[in-house]
């Protein structure tokens, strides 16, 4: 067992690591760290800090670094596998903004995350300045959403100018982890870059029109984008000395969590659909050519194999699903068994959806009020699910 591959997933609420033996593709180690429980000094709730009333959701990127070091230390203490690791690949929550100065220090101590919805004004301004939604879709294959990165940068420029001015490079979550692992390599790859709403996934270039709307100097603050399929360097001397990694241990380009969910579910060729039920819910497939939704609801992303990943997202998923399971005393396996009792499509009958919330986020667009929709006569017992969004006024 001399060829080990390590995968790190830096998600909203936790960090996960798995080690695979490449000789027989067996799983030889896995571990999980929950931020709230194991790093309480950061004061997070479900991995984030913020104000529900203002739709702010942020995290301190140093929390992720601390979590990785704890994961590595436990791996070192429990096994002798670290020197055998040939490569590390990182998946990270998409869209989160990390700002670094020339010395590698955070210019802002928190990162606006994918589920931060405080930047709608910036989305509206960018769309208006470019000439409307249709022009935006022509420019980047997507509309501007609060979950994407462009409006987060613009929000910093408009409201926290000193942070913006002191920033040397803007990174996404997994790029920042790669920067740490390699000791300073700054690169993006096409999968995660396509979720910034600044990068044209068709022509695979940064949009000068959009970057100039935000600031004339933004383009030079954005990293070079390279292919998703190559390594970006080797693990840093600091980490080899501290934990015993081989100096030839490679760090892969990595990508966003959705891109790597596709890889993990074998969704690498056209014809497969992956549904991912995490903090958010996503459904996506792989295409060899880009799919541009004229309404901008289905995102035009790149995948991690140099193909395309059209993706549909519901921002709040796991909370409602887990509440349904808890209320009905069901396990995940119980739920799967229940699904087998009806044919796919439920014989054409639309089941009722009942959501108890003042505001839900579907495709990053606010849906106001309580929703009971639309086939409640077929659904028997209606389950009202509180998805955990605080009461607010709009």
Task: Kindly summarize this structure in a few lines.
With 394 residues, the chain is an alpha+beta fold.
Q: Overview of this structure, please?
A:
The chain is of the alpha+beta class. It has helices at residues 35-38, 61-78, 120-130, 133-140, 150-159, 161-165, 173-182, 190-193, 208-214, 237-243, 257-264, 318-327, 332-339, and strands spanning 4-10, 14-21, 26-34, 58-59, 85-92, 98-100, 111-112, 169-171, 188-189, 199-200, 205-206, 225-226, 231-234, 250-252, 255-256, 273-277, 281-285, 299-302, 308-314, 352-356, 359-362, 365-368, 371-374, 385-386. Strands 1, 2, 3, 5, 13, 14 and 15 form a 7-stranded mixed beta sheet that branches. Strands 16-17-19-18 form a 4-stranded antiparallel beta sheet. A hairpin with a 4-residue loop joins strand 2 and strand 3. Helix 3 crosses helix 5. The model is unreliable at 351-394 (pLDDT under 50).
């Amino acid at each position: 067992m001399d060829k080990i591959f390590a995968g790190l997933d830096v998600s909203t609420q936790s960090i996960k690591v798995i080690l695979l033996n490449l000789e027989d593709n067996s799983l030889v180690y896995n571990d999980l760290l929950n931020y709230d429980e194991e790093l309480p000094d950061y004061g997070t709730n479900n991995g984030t800090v913020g104000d529900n009333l203002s739709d702010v959701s942020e995290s301190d990127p140093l929390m992720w670094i601390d979590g990785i070091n704890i994961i590595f230390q436990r791996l070192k203490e429990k096994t002798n596998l670290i020197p055998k690791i040939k490569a590390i690949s990182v998946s990270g929550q998409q869209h989160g903004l990390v700002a670094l100065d020339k010395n590698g220090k955070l210019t802002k101590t928190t990162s606006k995350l994918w589920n931060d919805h405080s930047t709608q004004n910036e989305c509206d301004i960018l769309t208006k300045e470019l000439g409307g939604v249709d022009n935006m879709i022509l420019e980047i294959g997507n509309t501007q959403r609060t979950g994407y990165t462009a409006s987060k940068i613009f929000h910093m420029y408009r409201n926290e100018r000193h942070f913006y001015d002191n920033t040397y490079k803007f990174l996404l979550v997994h790029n920042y982890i790669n920067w740490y692992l390699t000791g300073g390599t700054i690169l993006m790859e096409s999968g995660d870059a396509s979720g910034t709403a600044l990068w044209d996934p068709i022509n695979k270039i940064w949009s000068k029109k959009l970057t100039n709307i935000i600031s004339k100097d933004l383009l030079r603050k954005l990293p070079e984008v390279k292919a998703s399929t190559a390594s970006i360097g080797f693990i840093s001397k600091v980490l080899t000395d501290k934990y015993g990694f081989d100096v030839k241990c490679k760090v892969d380009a990595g990508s966003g969590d959705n891109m790597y969910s596709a890889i993990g579910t074998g969704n690498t060729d056209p014809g497969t659909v992956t549904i991912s039920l995490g903090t958010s819910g996503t459904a996506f497939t792989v295409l060899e050519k880009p799919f541009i939704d004229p309404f901008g609801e289905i995102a035009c992303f790149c995948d991690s194999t140099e193909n395309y990943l059209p993706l549909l997202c519901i921002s709040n998923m796991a909370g409602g699903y887990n509440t349904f399971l808890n209320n009905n005393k069901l396990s995940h396996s119980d739920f799967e068994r229940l699904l087998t009792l009806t044919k796919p499509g439920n014989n054409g009958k639309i089941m009722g959806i009942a959501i108890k919330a003042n505001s839900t986020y579907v495709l990053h667009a606010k849906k106001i009020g309580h929703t009971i929709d639309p086939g409640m006569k077929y659904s028997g017992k209606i389950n009202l699910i509180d998805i955990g969004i605080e009461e607010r006024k709009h």
